[in-house]
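Quick one:
INPUT:
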């Protein structure tokens, strides 16, 4: 795995926010949004898998450490900021994350740089639902929702919420009806995803493709990486964005 020092570092500013970004690879563009506690080695390793599969990957860095091993204390330190930060939502229902505009702008810039039919967006855990918010912009052609865990599933309303305001939900439904599917990946027994996959199946119908894995686990693409999950994500990105080559590791 290449450390982040081997990635091209930049900063993207839009919609009142500015965050560091890391870019590597060639081919169709994919934005990979990290989970809590930060942009860990494991997230970078997943980004490297996509680079090896033939994609240009951009990793935004929202919070926590960068290029580090995941640490429980780091997660505890990051959580209070996520709860009070104006750019994210943690417990609110029926609301799109405020950072959605920034992410859509990043996707447009990446697409302008690399071309192609559009870009992919992969959210996981805390950022799992962000890919839905991004696909409001037609430039996002391959949204992937991996173990969406926000809002915190305390009670049936939050457990079912998919992190979209009413207008954005209607826009996402329009995109799906027009032929843009959504891929969802999770461990079947993962409590943190609540009943969001059931909500997505209800509101998106056959446009929601779900991959549900047996066994315990949460982080399908990183800490509890499952080769079937990674293979499904790469196959989806390839189908939607263009041909690449990929051989998943065991």
């Amino acid at each position: 795995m290449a450390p982040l020092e081997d990635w091209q570092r930049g900063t993207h500013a839009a919609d009142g926010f500015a965050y560091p970004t890391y870019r590597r690879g060639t081919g169709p563009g994919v934005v990979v949004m990290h989970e809590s506690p930060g942009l860990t080695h494991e997230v970078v390793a997943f980004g490297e898998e996509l680079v090896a599969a033939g994609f240009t990957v951009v990793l935004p860095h929202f919070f926590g450490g960068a290029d580090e091993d995941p640490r429980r204390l780091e997660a505890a330190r990051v959580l209070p900021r996520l709860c009070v930060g104006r750019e994210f939502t943690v417990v609110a229902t029926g609301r799109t994350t405020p950072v959605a505009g920034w992410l859509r702008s990043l996707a447009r810039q990446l697409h302008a740089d690399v071309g192609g039919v559009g870009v992919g967006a992969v959210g996981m855990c805390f950022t799992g639902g962000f890919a839905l918010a991004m696909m409001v912009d037609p430039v996002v052609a391959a949204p992937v929702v991996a173990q969406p865990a926000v809002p915190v599933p305390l009670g049936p309303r939050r457990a079912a919420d998919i992190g979209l305001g009413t207008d954005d939900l209607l826009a996402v439904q329009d995109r799906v009806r027009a032929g843009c599917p959504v891929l969802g990946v999770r461990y079947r027994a993962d409590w943190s995803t609540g009943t969001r996959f059931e909500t997505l199946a209800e509101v998106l119908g056959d446009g929601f493709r779900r991959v549900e894995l047996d066994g315990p686990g949460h982080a399908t693409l990183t800490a509890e990486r499952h080769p079937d999950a990674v293979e499904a994500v790469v196959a989806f990105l390839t189908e939607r964005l263009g041909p690449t080559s990929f051989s998943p590791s065991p």
